[in-house]
Amino acid sequence: MSIPNLMHGSPWRQQLNVVNHAILNVQSCCYFFSLKMGCKLIVLFENILGLWQIYLGYSQIHDINRNLAPEWFSSNTTQHNSEFYLFLGLVAFFCAQLLLAGVVFQRKVCVMIWIGVMASSTVAFMFYTLVIDCIPESMLIDTLVSALQAYFVGIGLAYHMQLERSENSDDDLEVLFTASAA
């Protein structure tokens, strides 16, 4: 009995095929935009959010606008959180540039690298905010941010699969026939 025969009838393989076909049927982002435009909007959102996180992390590390923070705010916790969020802001900003390059130049590799890095940074963010730095007041917003990041990764995956499908399709294939003397 070979490996393909073992995997052919398994239910998880059939469920994976159903998910694959469902992602292939996604044609728009937020019901209004195409996948390409949705990816460009994700790049814009990630750039703004990344720059904002970089600014906040930098200003907290270097005590810029420290008089705005309440007195009960612990500086050790703030600096530790600031360094982590500064790192996540840098990752988000530079990975958004990867997604932009993948969308503009239609490069699957750039989109796939973006998907991998954003999925791993989302998992790291969830682990850090829900396990290490568990603050009940920010639990809801952290969960919403994680869900939004997962949606963004899903849109990127759908765009990657659309690029792969358009690359492998034979719709644009043109065959030229010439008359030959028999």
From TrEMBL:
It comes from the Eukaryota. Keywords: Membrane, Transmembrane, Transmembrane helix. The chain crosses the membrane at residues 84-105, 112-132, 138-159. This is Uncharacterized protein LOC111597680. The lineage of its organism: Eukaryota, Metazoa, Ecdysozoa, Arthropoda, Hexapoda. The gene is LOC111597680.
